[in-house]
Design goal:
This protein starts with 10 loop residues before the first helix and ends with a helix. The protein is mainly alpha-helical. The chain has a two-stranded antiparallel ribbon. Residues 1-6 have low confidence and may be disordered. Among the domains are: 13-180, no CATH class; 552-629. It is built from 31 helices and two strands. Helix 1 packs across helix 20 (389-422), helix 11 (215-228) packs parallel to helix 13 (256-270) and helix 20 (389-422) runs parallel beside helix 23. Its main location: membrane. This is TRAP transporter fused permease subunit. InterPro entries: DctM (IPR010656), TRAP_DctM-Dct_fused (IPR011853). It is found in: Cell inner membrane.
């Protein structure tokens, strides 16, 4: 979040960051001035990314392997570069259709795939590599598999052709889409962090929420949501914002586990917050075949209610713990300078949104956001002007993030190649659709668990990509509108970061908070209950998405009423406290839990009585409070 000094880097890491800086400049220059051949662009981006990751995270340093480690790094880079040269030797054969799976072609492809997967482990851990290995094994074991999993199988030549020597696998359309539209937003987020926008946002949020019970936690939610929408990784956002927000939450009296859970829930929720949504919005727009501006609009109300639910849970916890607002003498006083500094965050985002509204491409809108962020930082932040290395570090950070996400997308390309070759996605879709013929809610529950399992341990964009290919068609076939289906799976791809036993976001937040990762994940699940239920609401009431299907004002109005009722009932039931009544007994909590759950149901015979009961409880609690005062 701040331009702190970089830890001491090895010479090769410094060279890697220098290459990452150049990578950012290349991305910016291409968007602004050039049009590249698509095949060359995809391969070039992946090749640069491989070298950057190998240099910035060398196994010789991280695993203390000494000379053997350097040999591993050199071997992986050399293997990928060899496969790159070979790819261009046969590129003309790919275009003309005369490609042959010769032993030389197969060997070069294997080297490229192995080096790509091995280096992805450096950036993202083992989750991606294990997923790719499982899918590849599934592809080759097809004839031996039972039931619905059985298929004709693959042989090495055909697999290598579709995974490496085609534009359906590693160098497929998704790789091009991410390279063309997403990388600039990683640079945008890195620049915003270095301009001091994060410090300004946290300071202003703290001052504005200080008069509310649990104000520090509310401020953390705002800050993490804003920066989470620009981050491609829940874990990276938690690490960046959590070092500031988690101590603030703990100082106000919340437990370490609750502090870590708030940060994790807010950071993961940021990935679902428009206009950027961790860049998944642009991929979704392409897959659904809608203008990205409409997808942004569709994501707005679900995100609003998700955060209202989170705020309500924090407030209920503060009431239960009797955490008071900050005393007046401790409330930060906002000066005119603070409001001026708020432009560090709001002007770049407004410029970005303005570019969207004007019809600019996502890449050009991102570039306008980057330029605006740099200009705003130079004008408003004297430290940013005095220390030009901040800008260099921002571009290097953005280049490293871009390289890491490209490796993840490349590995997902291997998975997608197997999916396309075996037809497993169609079979999976047919199975869930057949369940949907009996019960749509059953199909959605199956899709939810599939998304949570496939998304565990993966960064947002790769998780959404694989789940969108595997699961979204299934619930579309079961009768769900395409946009609602894709939004549904994106929500659970993101929330896989807080679901035990993996809960990788909680494993990042818990050490910062001094809590237990597993306990933190259960608390994060509890306070995210509205966010977990909202996808079911917009599937059955698509007017909440504003642009999906046949929009109805009456349906939207009723949906908002029952969501507000559910948020209050669920927050007070799960938090164990009511703003007017204080702590609640077990019986009161059980009643409110039932009412809140009923309000979520789309059937009027269920939700109407629940809303009426909510109003009645509100009236009774207000009357009781007056009698006791």
């Amino acid at each position: 979040m701040t331009a702190t000094s970089q830890p001491e880097l090895h010479g090769i890491q410094k060279f890697g960051r220098a290459l990452a800086f150049v990578f950012s400049l290349i991305i910016i220059a291409v968007i602004a001035f050039f049009v590249l051949d698509e095949a060359n662009a995809r391969f070039g981006v992946l090749a640069i990314s491989v070298v950057i990751v190998a240099m910035t995270r060398p196994v010789a340093i991280y695993n203390r392997l000494g000379r053997a480690g350097w040999l591993v790094d050199i071997g992986l880079v050399a293997a990928f570069l060899y496969s790159a040269i070979w790819f261009f030797r046969v590129k003309q054969e790919l275009y003309t259709g005369f490609y042959m799976a010769t032993p030389e072609n197969i060997a070069a492809g294997v080297l490229g795939l192995v080096s790509l997967v091995a280096l992805s482990v450096r950036a993202w851990g083992w989750s991606l590599a294990i997923m790719a290995a499982v899918f590849v094994a599934f592809g080759f074991a097809g004839p031996s598999l039972p039931g619905i999993l059985q298929h004709f199988g693959m042989e090495i030549g055909g697999f290598m052709q579709i995974a490496w020597y085609s534009f359906d696998g590693v160098f497929g359309r998704v790789t091009g889409l991410v390279a063309d539209n997403v990388l600039i937003f990683l640079i945008f987020g890195a620049v915003l962090e270095r301009t001091g926008a994060g410090e300004s946002l946290i300071h202003i949020s703290t001052a504005l929420t200080a008069r509310i019970r649990g104000g520090a936690a509310h401020a953390a939610i705002v800050a993490s949501a804003v920066f989470g929408m620009m981050s491609g990784s829940v874990a990276a956002n938690i690490a960046g914002t959590g070092v500031f927000t988690i101590p603030l939450i703990k100082r106000q009296g919340f437990s370490p586990n609750f502090a870590g859970a708030v940060e994790t829930a807010a950071s993961s929720g940021g990935q679902l917050t428009p206009p950027i949504m961790a860049a998944a919005v642009f991929v979704m727009a392409d897959l659904v075949g809608m203008p990205f501006a409409l997808v942004i609009v569709a994501a707005a109300l679900p995100a609003v209610f998700k955060y209202i639910g989170l705020f309500a849970q924090v407030y209920a916890e503060a009431v239960r713990l009797d955490i008071k607002p900050l005393p007046k003498d401790q409330i930060p006083v906002l000066t005119s300078r603070d409001w001026l500094d708020s432009a560090l965050i709001f002007l770049p985002i407004m410029a970005l949104m303005g570019a969207f509204i004007m019809g600019k491409s996502p890449a050009m809108a991102g570039l306008i956001g980057v330029v605006t962020a740099i200009a705003t930082g130079l004008v408003l932040n004297p430290k940013f002007r005095r220390e030009p290395q901040r800008l260099l570090q921002a571009l290097a950070d953005g280049g490293v993030s871009a390289a890491q996400i490209m490796l993840a997308v490349g590995v997902i390309g291997i998975v997608l190649a197997v999916v396309n070759e075996t037809g497993v996605a169609i079979r999976f879709a047919t199975s869930i659709a057949s369940a949907g013929e009996e019960s749509l809610i059953l199909a959605l529950i199956l899709a939810m668990f599939g998304a949570l399992i496939l998304g565990m341990g993966l960064p947002t964009l790769p998780a959404y990509l694989i789940i969108a290919i595997m699961i979204a068609p299934a619930i579309i076939k079961a009768g769900v509108l395409p946009l609602a289906a894709h939004m549904f799976v994106l929500y659970f791809a993101v929330y896989s970061s807080i679901v035990p036993p993996i809960a990788y976001g909680c494993y990042v937040a818990a050490p910062i908070a001094g809590g237990n990762p597993l306990q933190t994940s259960f608390v994060a699940l509890r306070i995210s209950v509205v966010g977990l239920l909202v996808p079911y609401v917009f599937v059955f009431s698509p007017s909440l998405l504003l642009v999906a299907g046949e929009f109805s004002w009456s349906e939207l109005g009723f949906t908002i009423c029952r969501l507000l009722a559910a948020i209050w009932m669920l927050a007070s039931a799960l938090g164990g406290a009511d703003p007017r009544l204080g702590r609640l007994g077990a019986g009161q909590r059980a009643v409110r839990l039932v009412i809140g759950a009923a309000a979520m149901f789309p059937l009027p015979t269920i939700w109407v009585p629940a809303v009426v009961a909510t109003l009645a409880l509100g009236f009774l609690s207000r009357t009781q409070m007056r009698q006791t005062t």
